[in-house]
Automatic annotation (TrEMBL):
Its main location: membrane. It is found in: Cell membrane. This is Aromatic acid exporter family protein. Residues 146-310 form the Putative aromatic acid exporter C-terminal domain. Keywords: Cell membrane, Membrane, Transmembrane, Transmembrane helix. The chain crosses the membrane at residues 12-40, 75-92, 99-120, 126-143. It is a multi-pass membrane protein. PANTHER family: MEMBRANE PROTEIN, MEMBRANE PROTEIN-RELATED. Pfam families: ArAE_1, ArAE_1_C.
Length: 319
């Protein structure tokens, strides 16, 4: 069964309201108010406000140009073409080209009227204002995206925890049983989360930043590091004490993946672990030396992973 979205619902309701208002006031071409409303319903408040401003400016510009050119030259189809050759470049230059389609409706109204009168100017002005303002008022309501973003956040954290747990398991056992399905899924979830957070920011006109967008960007950077870390795992061959310590550290880290910020705690533990490595005996063979170097490189990447999180102030939810 098909689903009716809130934007579709607002478009349908807004069109009816705009036409009824225009018809109530006895305006000519009252159905055009509904057309303007349809064209002005946008997915976000910011885009709606921008579209409303652009279309109002473009419509009144087209009304002025159409009145002048039809009266001064002639009411002829060729004049419509000449008018559009002048009007469209102006809208592009002023960056209000979104209003071209709605303005074309006004131009055709003037052409079909056959003459410019005070009644025509007032009629078209009311149609413009009713159609656009109805859309603008309806677009004030935008459903909250917090629940959707929160669910994506939880799924991403669950995947991060699983990936880190699998990394720790491999370091301890050398078992390659993991299929890595979380890698593809978490990448898609991060992209989806960023898109939702951007939309949410567009809906909040006075909001300077979106904490969820910052969160998803932070996870994106961490995920890029994880993708670099995974190939390093295959270079380890010996179950050395250092390797087991790193595995235990990652295993503990996997149980603390959440939107708060405990990165400083784990950075401190990581620095302690690096200090312990320095106190341990040096490698005795070339293979052990290469593995120790690879392990230290792995730890350095984990340090970057934690530093990325340390700059994030955290999301603290009620309840």
């Amino acid at each position: 069964m098909f689903k009716i979205g809130y934007r579709t619902l607002k478009t349908a309701i807004g069109t009816v309201i705009a036409i009824m208002i225009a018809q109530f006031f006895g305006l000519d071409n009252f159905a055009s108010a509904g057309i303007l409303t349809i064209l002005c319903i946008k997915p976000t408040r910011r885009k709606s406000l921008k579209a409303a401003f652009d279309r109002i400016l473009a419509c009144f510009l087209s009304l002025f140009l159409a009145s002048a050119m039809f009266e001064w030259i002639a009411y002829h189809p060729i004049v419509i073409g000449v008018l559009l050759l002048i009007f469209i470049p102006i809208t592009v230059k002023w960056k209000i080209q979104e209003g071209i389609v709605t303005s074309s409706v006004i131009i055709l109204h003037v052409y079909m009227a056959g003459q410019v009168s005070f009644h025509l100017i007032v009629n078209e002005s009311y149609i413009i204002l009713i159609g656009i303002l109805v859309a603008l008022i309806l677009n004030i309501y935008m459903p909250s995206l917090d629940k959707n973003m929160g669910e994506l956040k939880d799924e991403i954290e669950k995947h991060f925890s699983s990936i880190l747990s699998e990394m720790a398991h491999y370091l301890k056992t050398n078992e390659e049983l993991w299929q890595g399905a979380e890698i593809t899924d978490v990448s898609e979830k991060i992209k989806e989360g960023k898109a939702l957070a951007s939309k949410d920011l567009e809906n909040n006109l006075l909001q300077g930043e979106n904490i969820y967008y910052t969160y998803f960007k932070m996870r994106e950077k961490q995920f890029e590091l994880i993708e670099r870390l995974l190939p390093l795992l295959t270079s380890f061959q010996f179950n050395s004490p250092q390797r087991i310590k790193v595995a235990n550290f990652i295993e503990e880290l996997s149980t603390h993946v959440h939107p708060g910020n405990t990165a400083h705690h784990f950075l401190y533990k990581l620095y302690q672990m690096k200090h312990e490595f320095k106190e341990m005996p040096l490698p005795t063979t070339r293979d052990e030396f290469e593995e120790r170097a690879a392990l230290l490189n792995f730890v350095s990447e984990m340090e970057k992973y934690l530093q990325i999180k340390s700059h994030f102030r955290g999301i603290y939810q009620k309840g």
